[in-house]
Amino acid sequence: MGPILIIGQNGQVSSYLQRALAGKYEVVVAGRDQLDLSQVDQVYAALEVLAPALIVNPAAYTAVDLAEEESELAMLINRDAVAEIGRYSQATNTPLIHFSTDYVFEGNGSRPYTEEDPAAPTGVYGSTKLAGEKALQDIDAPAIILRTSWVYSNHGKNFYKTMLMLAESRDELSVVADQVGAPTYAGSIAQACKELIQVIAEQGQIESAQRGIYHFTCQGQTSWAGFAKALFQANDVDHVKVYEIPTKDYPTPAKRPAYSVLSGEKLRNTFGISLPDWQDALSQCAAESKNSSET
C-alpha cells in the first residue's frame, strides 16, 4: 500500500495512530501548515499534492462549548472541509476513514445506540459532525465513518489528564454522575484502526457493502464520576474523594447527552474488530502514565 495520510498532527487519535502504524506502513502526517481544514477552498488541492493511498481523518473542531459561539467555524471544519475530503476520496477512489462522535445522539436512550438509530444532536458540535457524516454519504465517498466517544489518553487535553492534574492540588472533586457513556482510550482506537487499515490494505479498497457508519468505542459503560473514581484507582491516587453531582449542578453552554453508549456489534460483524472493555483499556493507559513518569 502507498502512503497513508493522517490529517491532524497533534490530536489524541493522530498521536497514537502515528505510533501504531510506524514501521508497518508509510505514513504522512499533515499538520495545519500542510492541510488547514479551516481553509476549505485549499483542501482538495492539498490532497492532490499529498496523493495518499488511504486517508484517515481524526481532525475536527472539537471545542464542544465554544462551538455554541463559533458555529460557523465549527461547520466550516466539521462539514465543509469534510465534504472536500469526500469529494477527493470519491473522485480518486481513495479509501477514507473519518471519525465522528456520540454527540450526534440526543442522549435520552437507555440501551446502546446502533447505527440505525435516528440522530438528533442537541448542540452545535454534534450538529456539525452529523452534517459531515451526511456530506460524505451524499457524495458517496468510499468512506468508513467511525463514531467514538469520551476519548482520553496521556496526550493532549482530556478528562483523564484533567482529573490527575486536579488531584495534585485537591482532596475533593465533584463530578457529574448522571451522564453515562463509554470512556475510550486513544490507544485502543489506534490499535483497532490499525486492524481496520490492514483489512482495507488486503482488499485494496473499501467494498461498497462496507461503506457507512460504525460505532467505535470501548465496551461497557460508566458515568463521569465512575470514570474519575476508576482512573484514580488505576493510578494509585487514593487521597481524592469524588462527590457525585447531577448535571444541573455543573451547567455548560452545550448540552451533553445523558446516555451515549454505542453498540459495537456492526463493527464486529463486518470486520471482526472490537475495542476492549473500557476498564481494561484504562489499565493500559494507566500503565503508560506510570511508565512515562518513571522515565
Please give a handful of descriptors for the protein shown.
295 residues; alpha/beta; 6-stranded parallel sheet; two-stranded parallel ribbon
Task: Tell me the β content.
Answer: 15-25%
| Protein structure class | alpha/beta
Give the H and E element order.
EHEHEHEHEEHEEEHEEHEHH
* Main sheet: strands, sense, barrel: 6 strands, parallel
Overall geometry comes to: globular
Measured on Cα atoms, how large is the radius of gyration?
A: 19 Å
Strand order in the largest sheet: 2-1-3-4-5-10
What's the rounded overall pLDDT mean?
96
Question: Which parts are unreliable, with pLDDT below 50 for 5 consecutive residues or more?
Answer: none
**Topology, number of strands:** 12
Helical proportion, percent range: 40-55%
Number of helices: 9
Please give the alpha-carbon distance between the first and last residues: 35 Å
Would you write up a description of this structure?
This protein is of the alpha/beta class and 295 residues long. It is 41% helix and 16% strand. It is built from nine helices and twelve strands. The strands form four sheets. Strands 2-1-3-4-5-10 form a six-stranded parallel β-sheet, with helices on both faces. Helix 3 links the parallel strand 3 and strand 4. The longest helix has 22 residues. The protein is globular and about 55 Å long. The mean pLDDT is 96.
Please sum up the structure shown.
This protein has helices spanning about 10-20, 40-50, 70-90, 125-140, 160-165, 185-205, 225-235, 265-270, 280-295; strands at about 5, 25-30, 55, 95-100, 145-150, 150, 170-175, 180, 185, 210-215, 220-225, 240-245. The protein is an alpha/beta fold and about 300 residues long. α1 (about 10-20) links the parallel β1 (about 5) and β2.
